[in-house]
Amino acid sequence: MKLKQYNLNFLYQETFALTKRLFIQLQRRPSTLLAGILQPIIWLFLFGALFSKAPEGFLPGVDSYGNFLGAGLIVFTAFSGALNSGLPLMFDREFGFLNRLLVAPLASRLSIVLSSFFYITILSFVQSIVIMIVSFVLGYGWPDFYGLGIVFTTLILLVLFVTSISLCLAFVLPGHIELIALIFVINLPLLFSSTALAPISFMPNWLSWLASLNPLTFAIEPIRIAYTQTMNLDLVALHAPYGDLTCKSCISILFSLTVFSLIIIRPLLNRKLN
Amino acid sequence: MNYIQITDLSKSYADIEALKNLSIEINAGSLFGILGPNGAGKSTLIKILATLVEPDGGEIFINNINLVGNPRQIRELIGYVAQDIALDKILTGRELLDFQSDLYHMKKKEKYERIKLLINKLEMNDWIDRKCGTYSGGMKRRIDLAAGLLHLPKVLILDEPTVGLDIESRNIIWQLLKDLKNDGMTIILSSHYLDEIDKLADSLVIIDDGKVIAQGKPTELKNKLGGDRITLKVREFSTHEESQKICEILSSIDGISQIIINKAQGYSINFVVEKEKDILTKLKVELAFSKFEIFSLAQSQPSLDDVYLQATGKTLLDAEISMTGKRDLKKESKQSMR
Known about the structure:
The structure holds 2 protein chains of 2 kinds.
Chain A: H1 2-28, H2 31-50, H3 65-83, H4 86-94, H5 97-103, H6 110-137, H7 145-172, H8 176-192, H9 205-213, H10 215-228, E1 236-240, E2 243-246, H11 247-273
Antiparallel strand pairs in A: 1-2
Chain B: E1 4-13, E2 16-26, E3 31-35, H1 42-49, E4 57-62, E5 65-66, H2 71-77, E6 78-81, H3 93-103, H4 108-121, H5 137-149, E7 155-159, H6 167-182, E8 186-191, H7 194-200, E9 203-208, E10 211-216, H8 218-223, E11 228-233, H9 240-251, E12 256-262, E13 268-273, H10 279-289, E14 296-300, H11 304-312, H12 316-323, H13 329-336
Parallel strand pairs in B: 3-8, 3-9, 6-7, 7-8
Antiparallel strand pairs in B: 1-2, 1-4, 4-5, 9-10, 11-13, 11-14, 12-13
């Protein structure tokens, strides 16, 4: 029992140190943070302006396009941040810094992965909160207390899901060039094939299928409900071609995807880190 | 049993056999040198000892602990200073040491005392609070060494720690290694600098092409050569045939042994002469009789390079040169990436 407590203390110490290092890097090179905030804000302004003269009732259940777009951009911000989470690890691999960690008698090498999760989750939250505040200032609304809980739960699940994939890629791919190239390929197509920018009812049949299977959609729709209605988990959030999905169903799917991805990457992480 | 016992160690990367049944014994509290040209297998051996690479075969015991079976226990015992210095450019030196000490689960008071001590010992006070990205090669090496020593390891493993360093940094590191050894730390030092190993090591192994070609104390290995080493040239650049003829003459003289033609140095001829006999006078007579003039003749105490030369027929420098271009460093780097 004592030994277990010891190991937990050690795990905490090493995870804290690894996370602190990532935050020191962020503090001294804040461009990632700023770019992650600026890009969605620019989109919010531009897309908001683009559809500002859309006729009333153009979008179902929302007052304005900005009101609709907010949820998509919050999710996109968290998604982009999480997708990039493998990069620091990839650089550590390439520059040999990972060896410094692997030579140390870490209580568990899981701390390397945990620190990335903590870092990206906190970073995504900060970025998302800024986007939420800007949306609020622009008059695009603010979720109620329960809705806020749903927003953050959904974001945590999405960040865990995408971060696990990104860390996995950081170990599998040969270098950062390949990782960045893959991020480029994944990032925008996933955004455009989700309900971030347009509702499913606007999409051709094939795209509506794609959007209804897109993990981003399962994160966007509950958040959109939190923004536009009094939050209720049993409200229908997504009118997918294969049937209606409630907020609860969307979050459950996202939860399952997250658990599944964590199970899938575990053997790889074990092989690479042990 | 020795403090570190390596038996029949082997390791391959794809089609390259990096280590071939290597067996080494290292005593506690000694400074053990690993000497060999680039590509000989030194770094692979060091990485295996540092638990970064798993061997394909063989056994390693450190303080009676099986390295392959208990890597975490071994990591608590060892400090590792890699050949390629991997620092976080964004962190200051002090932050890096603080970070490192947390990875070794050091207590707050203990880590601040150790960091302070090492900063003083390695003369890093003036620049420790600057970002690592601004450090020179010598500064980087010193901070890396401090990081390896933070947790007071029982065994310190250093992979070519003085490559490309200025004299000041090299001297500081040499002095530190001597002090650490005197304090009872076991040190494993890989290098391709002969003078470094000769000056610092209590015992050493010479590795070539993944195999042990000599092992023992530096003086023992040099004494085994049996006498002074002579380097003879009859012209600045001789031919192979010419050298062969001289070899025949030398073979006929009593007291001359271990004759080697060194192609890389203009077909010069290296050989060993017994100390007590006046062989050189006889040699001059014999060469003059065969109408050879002496262009240069150097007599020296045997060095570790001579030990290497004796075993492989080439000097370490020649071996380094011959390896240049043969190695695919990018491929090796990818193979060793986790």
